[in-house]
Design a protein that fits this description.
With about 350 residues, this protein is mainly alpha-helical. It contains 13 helices and five strands. The relative contact order is 0.15. Bound molecules: iron/sulfur cluster.
Length: about 350
């Protein structure tokens, strides 16, 4: 394993401390509008699903939600133009297959609503350089791709994405808090300079599990699809990927007892297998009754069964691509109506096109 227990990140949260002894502090009100974005990578894996997409589907059943495929963010790193349309289509198809739909939220593509770029420029004039320089993601991506202004300004475009719709809730993981704080800062700066216009969006933090790559090295990632279980991977591919997955390194021979607490396969069982199976694996691994190959194939069948409805819906949509394009066109229309109203207000406040 890659150090420590893979359970980190899935632990239940401690209750919020009270500032007034036993008095309970009322929880903040639910957000009225939620915005979230996903890059058009063309490959959505179980880490994305368990950590974000499942939560989006749940939020869309009770809140006003916008889900955006952020293609302008994707152009900040090298890519093939010929592949971008299919990457965008696959991202939309996968989200729809996971349960998002046009009845319960707006699904659209960022570049179909040009106001994102216009507001990004306005916010660039307010964004603090010092905070942009401190962004962890900028440092990491600059090391990988070289320093360029697009990576530097990425969080300002994210701020524009959110504020354009006056969203007051953003479902994110802890690693995105830094970017959301920048959004809150530029919203405050705009409001101070030009009058109260934008809400300060709050994070909707979920206990998103940190799903490790199948080789146990770091987080499951789109950049290493061979070490990630794709939501739309065919059953044989899921079996093959799990067959080579890393387990407890102390189990060198079949009859060595194992420690499920440090095994990524056991961690994955918690999301795909029933309680009886989990208890059996926990017991039989420690006594070496259960071998790793057998257990990995057992997990593979549970993963295949769990993802089957998503795969089936994706197959249906793939046979009718016009349906996916229609959802995106309708989403762009609805998103544009909100975006145009916001930009009219922004320009009016700033004395532009008066
Ligand atoms: S039997 Fe299962 S839980 Fe135990 S080490 Fe092998 S793969 Fe992990």
């Amino acid at each position: 394993m890659n150090g420590g227990s893979p359970r980190t990140g899935a632990e239940p949260r401690a209750p919020e401390p009270s500032l007034h002894g036993d008095e309970r502090i009322a929880p903040p009100p639910e957000p009225t509008r939620v915005f979230s974005g996903i890059q058009p990578s063309g490959f959505v894996h179980v880490g994305n699903w368990l950590g974000a997409v499942r939560n989006w589907v749940e939020l869309s059943t009770r809140l006003d939600c916008l889900f955006c495929i952020v293609d302008y963010h994707a152009v900040t790193v090298p890519y093939a133009a010929a592949e971008m349309p299919s990457r965008t289509f696959e991202a939309a198809l996968t989200l729809l297959a996971c349960g998002l739909d046009s009845e319960r939220g707006i699904l659209f593509v960022q570049s179909h609503v040009p106001e994102h770029m216009e507001l990004a420029w306005v916010l660039t004039t307010l964004a603090p350089m010092g905070e942009l320089e401190r962004m962890t993601q900028f440092k990491e991506k600059s090391e990988a791709y070289g320093v360029q202004a697009g990576l530097f300004m990425y969080p300002v475009l994210q701020a524009a994405d959110i504020l354009l719709y006056k969203a007051d809730g953003v479902p994110i993981g802890e690693d995105q808090l830094q970017h959301l704080e920048l959004t809150r800062e530029v919203a405050r700066r705009f409001n101070r300079a030009w009058g109260e216009t934008f809400p300060e969006p709050r994070p909707i933090l979920t206990d998103a599990p940190r799903i490790l790559a199948l080789d146990g090295k770091g987080k499951m990632s789109k950049s290493q699809p061979e070490q990630a279980i794709g939501l739309l991977d065919p059953p044989d591919v899921i079996r093959a990927k799990l067959r080579g997955a890393f387990t407890d390194p102390a189990r060198k021979r079949r009859f060595d007892p194992g420690n499920p607490d440090i095994c990524n396969i056991f961690f994955l069982h918690h999301f795909f297998s029933g309680p009886e199976d989990i208890a059996r694996v926990d017991r039989d691994c420690r006594t070496a009754v259960l071998g790793c190959f057998e257990d990995k194939m057992n997990l593979a069948e549970h993963v295949i069964d769990t993802l089957a409805p998503i795969r089936e819906r994706a197959d249906e949509l793939r046979s009718d691509p016009a349906r996916v394009h229609a959802v995106l066109a309708g989403g762009a229309e609805r998103a544009s109506a909100i975006a145009r109203a916001t930009m009219d207000e922004v320009r009016r406040r700033m004395g532009l096109r008066a």
